[in-house]
Structures
1.
Amino acid sequence: MSARTARDATPPVEREHALALLEAMLRIRRFEEKCAELYQAGKIRGFLHLYIGEEAVAVGAMQAIATDDAVVSTYREHGHALVRGVPAERLMAELFGKANGCSRGRGGSMHFFDAERRFYGGYAIVGGGLPIAVGLALADKMRGDARVTACFFGEGAAAEGEFHEALNLAVLWRLPVLFLCENNLYAMGTALERSESETSIAEKAESYRLTAESIDGMDVLAVEAATRRAVEAVRSGNGPYFLEFRTYRFRGHSMADPELYRQKAEVEEWKQRDPIAAFETRLRAAGVLDDGDMARVEHAVASFVDAAVAAAEAGPWEPVEDLLTYLTSETP
Amino acid sequence: MTAGTLVAWRKEPGDAVRRGDIIAEVESDKADVEVEIFMNGVLEKILVEPGEKVPVGTPLATIRLDPGEVEPAPAPAASAAMPAAVPPPMPRAHAGAPAEGRAPISPAARQLAAELHVDLATVTGTGPDGRIQRRDVLAAAEAQRAVAAPTPEAAPRDKQTRMRQAIAAAMMRSAREIPHFHLASTIDMGAATAWLAEENARRKIADRLLSGVLLIKATALALREVPELNASWIDERVMLHESVHTGIAISLPGGGLVAPALHDADRQSLGDLMTNLRDLVMRARAGSLRSSEMSDPTMTITSLGEEGAEAVYGLIYPPQVALAGFGRLHARPMSIGGQVVSRPVVVATLAADHRVADGHRGSRFLAAVEHLLQTPEKL
Amino acid sequence: MNNDEIREVVLRLLSQVAPEADMAVIKPDVRLRDQIDIDSMDALNFLISIDAELHVEIAEADYPKLTTLDNIVAYLAGKLTVDG
Amino acid sequence: MTTMTYREALRSAMRDALERDPRVFLMGEDVGLYGGAFAVSHGLIEEFGPERVRDTPLSESTFVGAGIGAALNGMRPIVEVMTVNFSMLAMDQVLNNAATLRYMSGGQFHVPLVVRMATGGGRQLGAQHSHSLEGWYAHIPGIRVLAPATVADARGMLLAALEQLDPVFIFEHATLYPMEGDIDEQAGAADIDHAAVRRAGKDVTLVTYGGSLGKTLEAAATLAEEGIEAEVIDLRTLRPLDMATVLESVARTHHAVIIDEAWRTGSLAAEVSAQIMERAFNELDWPVQRVCAAEVPAPYAKHMEDATLPQAAQIVRAVQEMFA
């Protein structure tokens, strides 16, 4: 394994920042659990890909991404959008298909968009977002804007042509792209070693002369530290940077996934390293977190999720007469 | 997934359940799914036994909530609030399957025929498998005009042959398509001729009446009593006409025939009929008839005048359904009151379309004509 | 008006109701209706035109006397001299 | 007015755009040092430098996707996909991103992207290099599809495309590049909403576009000698289709033939024919005819390839049959 693993143990973290990270992860966790409940109740329909288990990646990475940078995501995007700051009310309304959704009810779970926050959306075609990210970075470079484009994708994308084309072009043209690979070991029902000859995604990236690191995606502090390093390098104009986060999803690929492709024991084993529980334990041990803090955070997160659901329930349906609007710039 | 079968319960009644617990396993057509619980409480009663198949949404068990637990939001009733998606309006396909047996017709030809008042039944198609096209409708309209009014400026010989062709086409179609039946009856014209002589004696020569107008008026009035003879056969259906426009067959110098209409003959006075008839004959012979007079007689009368045969059995002009014919006025021995006397008579004939009328109705018509001619002063 | 003038008027009026006929070949002593194609309507129009031009009132009863060119001219000549 | 070739007209439009608008840049396979596979961008890299005239690796999906990304982020890219045959590799980016992002995001993004590609057969390049797939693109809501058939349109329609806020796909029939024609060098953006009547006529309406215009005009000339006056309509825009011009013509002529180099089944010709049937049914004196490619992969041998492509003689025969 020549790819450098995390260089050193993550530094101690001060209390306020730690609580913020914890609350951010809990917000994702409880939001996703509520989505599962609402899906079973028939309020959310279609496809739903939950982020439970991978919260540390979104929360850790987003700390280093500036508000003016761009973010490109995938269909497992709830965590990315929440941490990026897209209001939970607008996300839940979108999941209900309501007109006050962040895509006016047009996109659904796999296609959140927020132009103001430069959140360029979820992409349902595996690897489909990578060329978009390359293009966003190309424009910044041509205009001399010191902005970074962060592009999330799963290890499944490594099997798509666009992964190789995008990495090559980004390095060839020294484009400010931050490639963030969430390696959760399974592309839907196909384990990594059953689809890739070389299973180290970071080493694949290095073959394009790209600086790459493989990071423990269950340690929010490790994720944050690695992402800060990477963003600093990209913003300085050295071209793209590649981070592989080793993580795991505790739920099925989507809501109808019987999970026949993996052992229950393996799921339980990874659950022992639940990024939120692990971080809570660590903070308690470091004396920066007590029961009162936990109760306050849980309460805040509960009202955060309930507010989102209330906004979604109250939201209006888009009138069918607007069917053709937004198709082109001429249909306003 | 419209229905599911309960495979097994993971909890028993009385067991405590916590948020996130799996309480049962359900099998659907696609996959086995674990039923997760989203509140804390105690499993009270099981409503669906293992192996039972139930539609989606059926409650599986009742749970007594722990104090302080919030009742979960009920599932929405079907999609009541969801706006029904209005399907985009599909352009209504014009069904218009042609009746079988009828020649295929191009849409443009059908449209043109409607505009030019051409009865498609009179048109023969020259397109593939006999399809009628615009040019066929144009030719028919032209022929229809030729039958009606030969254009004066055309060279006579050319006009003659074109006219003959048009008449031939109409007569061929009449013979081919209309199931004719003919009736005749000899009408005593004594009263009519006496009244006419007396009437003309009182009238200046310019106002004198010919016997023909008596026959026209009688025919027109008789049509009111047998209206199905005052009709046209178009698109396999009989179309009755309210007004009675009697076509008058007028022979043209050097051969040829036109049958322009005397409009509302049933309502004109004998004097008006006479004036209009004279005008019609003169304009027909001069070739300056109006097209409207050409295309809308509802029934036609043919009379061969003093030199003609005793009786005329004619062919109906399509799309009309009847033709009245009057032979020449001549004397005939008749027995009246047991005595044989000489009476002026006319043989009246009726050619009628058996699709529309039958002998019984035809006879009623001829009887009406005869009856009306016995009281000429009332015509 | 002498007989020739009357004949000339009669032939002119006759040609108006039978334009296609050739007046030159009309035989004066043969039934007109056997020589040219005119029916009762034409005959009536002919008599009306004679009345209009020569102001001779012809009773319906006299119709049978007017069958040939000669007897028409003779009839009119008789009428004209009487009415002067 | 001057005379120049179709490719020179395209080049003049790109040069003007690159000069006037710093947001405009050209990206594609061999558009830079090689000067373009069809020599359209010859000389532009010397004039505007490698930053704005960018040769790309053979990664159609990613450089078309990058075009979309750059357009999302304020640029006005012109992406040249060498030919429509290679564009299949980028179809996911076209269909799922370029055409869809505005609608899917509820109107939050514009994608002002122009993609140019050569199209069509007739040069014995065999099955993989002779496709006519404009109809596949014209099937997609959310994008415009143009087919310039004349030298003037080659310049005018490209300039118009660059003014659009939504993706525009321009198909240039490969046989047109060397074609000479008159052009006003300073002419600005042309109309891209309407078809053009290239030849007036009263007896039959011939509807076509792009590379088939020449053969259609040739057929019209032959028919004129037989006294049949054909009206030739150049669609120019394949999405949206200017059906008003077509329907108005059919209402006068009552006959229509559609000439389309694509395969017959599911072709653009099928769409035009269906709309004529739906919206001008009563005007039809004859079923709408289509002259399209034979449904086989393009064979290499000349006589075989000629037999697959729509030819003027076929157009003439289709019309003669109507007036037999």
2.
Amino acid sequence: MTSQIPALIIVVPLLVSLVVSLAAWIRQSLCYAAALCAMLVAWISAILVMGRVINQGVITYRMAGWAPPWGISWHIDHFNAIILILIATVALINLIATRSTAAREFEDRPGVFYALYLLFVTGLMGIVITGDIFNLYVLLEIASLSGYALLGMGSGRAAVSSLSYLFIGTIGASLYLFGAGYLYIATGSLNMADIAAILPTIEQTGVIQVSFILCLIGLFMKMAFFPLHTWLPNAYTHAPNSSASLIAPLTTKVMIYVMIRIVLFVYQPEFAFAEMDIDRVIVWLAVIAILAGSMLAWKQERLKRMLAYIIVAEVGYMVGGFWLGNTAGMTGAVLHILNDAMMTLCLFLAAGAVISRVQTDAFGALQGVFTKMPFSMIAFVAGALSIIGVPPTCGFFSKWYLISGGMEAGHYAFVAALIISSLVNVLLFFRVIEIGYFEPFDSHHHKNGQTVREAPLDMLVPLLVTAGLLIVMGFYANTLVTWIVKPAISAATMGGL
Amino acid sequence: MKSIALTSVALLCAVLIYSTMGFPAWGDSDSPASTHVSDYYIENAVNDTAVPNLVTAVLADYRGYDTLFETTVVLIAGLACFFLLRRFKPRQPQHRLYRHIDTGITLIIEQGGKEPTDSEEFVRIDSRWVPYDLVIQQASCLVIPFLQLFALYVIAHGHHSPGGGFQGGVIFGATIILMAIANDLRSAARRVSERLGALMASAGVLIYAGIGALCILLGGSFLDYSALSKLFAFTPVMARSHGILGVEIGVAVAVSAVMIWIYYNLASAGRHEEGL
Amino acid sequence: MEELAAVFVARYNYWGVIILMGIGLYAMIAKTNMVKKIIGMNIFQTAIILFYISTAAKYGASIPIIAHGHGAQGHGIRAADYMNPLPHVLMLTAIVVSVATLGVALALAVRVYWNYDSLEEDEILNQIKAGQLNRK
Amino acid sequence: MIWQFDIIILTLVIICGIAAISVRDLLGASILFGAYSFMMCLLWAVMGAVDVAFTEASVGAGVSTVFFVAAVFRTSRSSKD
């Protein structure tokens, strides 16, 4: 029976999401409790799976009992096990933290909200866990479609932003599917391990190269890599708070995971780095992404919008670090996926707490929030320090690996971009802290007469836990690297590179 | 703008057309796509699952996990349309139109006026578009039962002929949509209410996922229908065949309900009062 | 000349796919109307479906339903006699995904229309800009 | 599978696709999209993908067109391009 534990990660959220969408028509009050239980079970089973991977190595789970390549199989190694834990943690914390926000934002349909929430998480977990390139597409669409619905429910511009996200996201997913079709026509297989075994044996006719480019462009669209990032800021700024703080930390990071998985485990490093010879180009694009993201973030006047542009820059960190092509850079990229998800969650939750009390996130209205909401702002500062990369927080360590990877590859422009973007981040967050800490609280700005006070406990406790995790992950960064990140990368590269 | 778009798209097409030169010829039965994995399905599917329609066998068994999420995608579309569009508060100010059946005279009831709700002589009509065509109404009444019968046949006969849960479900949903178009939204909603549709949509996917989870409880992998042979007196091969039928029924229930649900929300712009 | 004709017959289906993709992509980039963009998106998706179906075709093969499936129990089935069923299965899933995307896209378009009373992208952008100016 | 049939239908598909995106009336565009889907369904039937063709006939030519018409009815019928 223990061999079925991996299945629980997907099956429990899926089944419970269906029960929740039934319960939405019978008793709305059951929905939250059911969703919470499902996320807890998924979180515990993700940790159990991680333990088994560390002890026994790679787990292969055969769906419906058919052997690959005929059936669909899951392939769980260190890399996806840690991403599974990350998704479960972020979704669980956010579920607890946004309970009252969600009840306010979706007053007459919280049941359907929780059903879509669980389906979104199921989709992301399925993307991470699967070992089949077509199955990945289906789950990509599950996560995307529920994401469009969750983002589009906000007021004002949300629907337009979500619709343009839908257009770009669908083109991206379709291009990925097209690339997978090129792979299928050349190899006749859909299983990742099977394709990886076939690819070196077939003669090169340009089909594989085109499929590689198509998949990569599709994923770049989905992850908002710089020239294709236009959907992200609007979609995240205008979205409801309870869904923005779920989707912003996870979507881009999972897409970067998919890129790493496809490049390392399907096409393999020899082909992707040596034969295609596009790694320098992509690192240069990443440099532009980092600089442009930071500059655009500087121009924003609203907290959530500024954070959205910081995400664009952070995507540049991870893509660039990975395409440096050396172990330090890849370690930095993988570690930064984990850190960045937690930092983004922390900052978006803090922004959500501020918005729930101040009613807006325009910088002008944030005067004196430090005195009124001290604990929320402590968490905000912790997240900000981590984004900047100040030592006790986890952001420092991944940035350290990224910079040393850049030095090792001799790509000094990337190193310079990282440092410049850190300096810009210092200025960005100092501006917010200056307004919030040094300027006195101005009651004229809060004309609705409501007194601004500390966020409610159910919002504050998860927020402080997230901030604490940032520091804990910083202390244990070395353990994380030796036990999880190193085995994940060396399994893919066979110690080469 | 348009010329830039046209040139860039044309360039992209040219590159892609050039890349097709590396493909095996169209219709070549020795290409990798037609030999590597697919031969196994063609040669063994009947032995493994007792289903002559290879597409059904692969869809619901070998790649049943994909199909589970395919059904879930449909459910998500239904949930999303409801989530984005549904407005529970009725429109203000409200006036309703009633038609006197025999004479065709239209009655406008302003707010507060008494409405002839249970009258035999008056029928409520939509404000923007007033379909009143005896031929269409009677013809649709005539064909809908046969269409529904055909939908059930397509669902049940998916093992042997083209079709299956998805196609049958869509046809079944389309019959209710036809009813809503030929008469009006309210008369369709009297037969399949929004609540019933929503419950059926979730329940259909739950049937599918539940059969899969039952297989885990019986000691197999997720969706491994051969484990069902422990519960019923089937051979494992027949258990797979019957498992596929059960799954197809779940798909059909979910898909038909979601199609109706999406139509209700789109056609009435979320108010469920007046339709197309 | 004969060689050219052979290349044409062996490839034109894929060329058709790529032309259809181009039509869909052009509609999504150049058209300003949201419903037109949605139609373009659907054409783009069906083009990819056509691509997969083209990979499944075999000359001289029949549809993927085993004749006399019962009784014979799979003796003497030659793989070359039947079309490749795998892409068909994949594309059933893809069609369903595309109709689900269509539903969500149309729902979002209707919501956009509630807010801006228009489906033209340029008019919506003008309204957004005017709204931002008003707020300042 | 006869390639002469295939190429005729493929041409019709492309013509319907171009027509669907160039008509200014959105209701007409929806109906042309339905025709496009139906031609596509024929094309797949020629290639032996009967299940896929069946699905496209019921989904693409049937329900999708109804969804388009419903959405156009609830928004606006005219388009600038």
3.
Amino acid sequence: MQMIAEKIKEKIKELTENGKISRVMGWKKGLYGYDSEPFVFENGDLRDFTYDAFSGANLCKYMIAQSKNDGDGKILVLLKPCDTWGFELLDKEHRIKRENIYALGIPCGGMVDIEKIKKSGVKGITEISEKEDTLILKTMYGEKEVNKKDYLLDKCLVCSSKEYKDCDELFMTDLCGDTAEYDRFEEVEKLEKLSSSEKFEFWRSQLEKCIRCNACRNVCPACSCVKCVFDNDNSGVAAKANANDFEENLFHIIRAFHVCGRCVDCGECSRVCPQNIPLHLLNRKYIKDIKELYGDEDEAALLTFTTEDKEPSVVYERGKNNV
Amino acid sequence: MQTDRGVTAEKEFQPKIIAFCCNWCSYAGADLAGSGRLSYSADVKIIRVPCSCRINPMFILRAFQKGADGVILAGCHPGDCHYSTGNYFTRRRMTLLFSMLDYMGIEKERTRVEWISAAEGAKFSATMNEFAGEIKKLGRSKRLGDLRCR
Amino acid sequence: MQRIGVFVCWCGSNIAATVDVKKVAEELKSEPGVVYSADYQYMCSENGQNLIKSAIKDYSLTGIVVCSCSPRMHEATFRKTASEAGINPYMVEIANIREQCSWIHKDMATATQKAIILGRAAVAKVNLNTPLTEGESPVVKRALVIGGGIAGIQTALDIADAGYKVDIVEKKPTIGGKMAQLDKTFPTLDCAACILTPKMVEAAQHENITLYTYSEVEEVKGYVGNFDVKIRKKARYVNENLCTGCGECTSKCPSRKGLNEFNMGLDGRGAIYIPFAQAIPNVPVIDTAQCIKFKTGKCGLCQMNCPSKAVDFSQKDEFIDEKYGAIVVATGFDIITLENYEEYGYSMYKDVVTSLEFERLMNAAGPSKGHLERPSDHKQPKTIVFVQCVGSRDTTGCGKEYCSKICCMYTAKHAMLTREKYPDTEVYVFYIDVRTPGKNFDEFYRRAVEQYGVHYIKGMVGKVYDDGQGHLMVRGSDLLANEQLTIKADMVVLAAATKADESARKLGTMLTASMDTNDFFTEAHPKLRPVESPTAGVFLSGFCQGPKDIPETVAQAGAAAAKVIGLLAKNKLKSNPCVARADSLICSGCSNCEKVCPFGAITYAETDVNDGTVREKRRVAVVNEAVCKGCGACTVACPSGAMDLKGFTNKQIFAEVDAICRQTGE
Amino acid sequence: MTENEEKKLCAEALIISGVKPEKCMKCGKCSGACPSYDEMEYHPHQFVDMVSKGQIKKLMESASIYKCLSCFVCVERCPRNVMPANIIEAVRALQERPQGTDRLTPDEVKNILDDDTPQQLLMAAFRKYSR
């Protein structure tokens, strides 16, 4: 990874010198080596630039604000394969000014979930370095080596494609790791098989944790409304916090419905949730439904139709097998 | 009704049912049921919308939030929409919404979509009776009821 | 805060017998915003309406609720009443306590309770009503007809006769369309040219009709009443104003290699040509791909020989911008190409022809001057086999799924005409079904069998092959006889499936008029509005909407004209004010609403938005109120709630839901 | 064979062949194209029709199931994707399967081989007479 980061830096320098870009949207080193964060690098200053196993954050949504002004020149954005899908959606929905962006597809071999490492009992991490698939953890209590593959982010566990969309240039993307072997619908299927009350209990226990921090919404490339309906005092459903259980449900059902057919399954909602609610399971349910009911279509499922679509009663018939 | 609490408790459960009807077919079908004196449950209250595609999932959830026990959507038969394609969108939206409600363990039997034309007064009445009966059997909306703002 | 009046109607005993109207009026009086309530025997009567009017004045009401019959019955009445009393007609809501209550419930207590709840919902809604104004737009008194076949000509004539200006745009060099190519027409067997050419002349000479032949629609903007259309007039290289149609040029042209499209390529024509003798306009056109002058720069014989100096090699395409109030689509049909059906040997054997080619072979103005001869050796065929359903009713993807509708009848016509003219010819027709619904149609078909002795064989042809001695061997099954037979024929005529004209798809996109998978235009309602497209101001005439024969086409052309006249007769179009509205402060410009709009009413514009904190130029949705029909599909597609429907706003519907769900006695 | 057994076999034939006879519009193009028509007692369109009506016995007993060349011209020509050849093949299979062993073995091929026999014919025969 360090090698890749260096090469990316060189590439950025080359593009800057050629006058193709003026700024860079990338990841900035944190204090400990596992807390890199999105950052805009300006004036060619790349001192704190990093691209490591913890650069999981999808940068595409920052492009809404960053590409707005025509006078600022082009901004380079670094996109992993799954980041590009959201990027494409934003472009398709006219949320970004594509002409002000230089999208560089970069390789990804799966990103690591620091929470998983911490949960395994490793404490006091001060620095992390990488050597191929090994993470070398320097802690206050000594050094430890772990296999990166054992601590991947949930979204990387079900990585379904290394396809890049809508990029201006692909850089070293042949270094991408393999896609995962896991079936991304497995978890959804498991839930579908539960009885009605088990499902209810499961979601209740999950959604009651929601503190309405709106992180899921803010990171989601499909949730890009100028003003969210839940923030709009005039909408009749505005709520800054969940006043009761119903509103927890309402928020998440409606959010899932609003991104239904547009969700690119980047998994960012679950990654950023401070309460670890598996929000991606709501969106993935819709993806599964759409696939099963309508097949592959070019247009978002709710924005099109065929005259032979299934009737809503299909839901009852399907449910009959597992009450 | 604090004074006759005992009486209220024994009183038969009267569900609250909202029927969203499109103006051109189902609302006219309801009118036909009326002029034909085809009785149906008084628990059903109709809200008129121009087209079934006007019905936002939020309306349905809002109804449950406020204490409805069942919500039924009625529109023109697919292919007969006054606006030509509105109900096709309704069909997709509601299929997916109901599927999600089911996935979250919320009783799917409390929501339904029916296609009722302006000529189907009898179907309107029969459908509403049948739906009201179903809801009565299910009793008060619990899963959504428990979550309800009281 | 609104000041609302509630008016409970007895409807004689229709309501009052089962609903305690006094109690309803009393209960609703305590609803928020209600300052007055009353009941009356017949609210819709003059006295009832006067009661409402004076209450509006006396109590300074801003909105009213009428608890009465269905709004489908008297909403318009009470809106007018309100308007006459000085309040906005859209400040009226109806609680339907007759059809939805008194008529279907017997128990007084139940019915009264329900009536109160319905009344509450209406009051809750009125509290959020805002005055709405019907939009008005002027109507350009000019119609555009796209397509100059019999459908287009008939529509244009009917509109023009009513006194409105009509322009016909035809992509071919002449008007007339497919009908001009036909020989006789079923079931009367009158000659097509005899009934069509007078209409063509009439269209050309009509003071209200302008013809744009050899022209195509380039661009359509605007909406019902106000379309802006750009028409491309392709260069003919002959000045229409100077040309006298003498034909000197066409006879001098040294190139003879062009295929005569009008005769289905059965004979040749020059590079400068007039499609056929009765063409309108009677002005030649130069086929630049064939013309020696255009290819090599040398020749120009036509120009030299033109007595009126009309030939102009430097002519360029012209563009015409015109405004129209209504557009009629009459793009007609074509027949499919038969490359997917090699079993019939169409591309292998000259004597296997399509029915349209057969029309030309039979036609007195055709390549053989009306003497039926087969293309290969110009001999008169002694045995002819007709094959129906070639490519029609085909679900394999090679042809078309639908029935082409006209083939059964024209095949019977061809068979009959052949036997009439050449009684010594044996005529066989392979059919799957003979479909002859129509006035005098089945009689016509039976005449072919009974009077003319045409051999109808129930079955299909599986193969056509050459016997090496100038005969075509036609092998097919005779299902009724349960045998396979091989007919030695001199000529085979294929009833090739029809299809929508190729230009239709592009045009449909331009007009935002919806089409089915077969590229036929969809009607606004399959039964009740068959000549209107769902796109307001766009009308459908003829085959472009689906297979039709000539009488049906002419009938539909007249119907479309009547609809156009009805539209153009209005000075202003009043539009339903209950239409969608986009809040530019909230709109993100994502285009989701545009994708679900059935009418193409939503466009996007870079707009300055300023919500007090943010000022920027942003792409936001704009609803064209003249085009929007107010279905509300966009409001649900919009995640942010920026799109709302006037008269049925989110908040109004929430309020109705809340009112109905409110605990009784709360 | 009882009527019921016959019906069952028909259902099986439809499953084996994947043919949906209700798609047939009875145009007869299959039989019109069939090169083996005169050899066959029952013709392609009759196979489709009779199997859908539950009359498979006559078909199984007729020589027609061996006269079909499996040239698939009927499948190729059918405007409704009905695939008559597949149903003939299925009827043949139903007749053959209970009889078990291979009815044409590679050893026998040598003896019937001559210069005029096209290879396709052998292939078709092999498909037909063996399992």
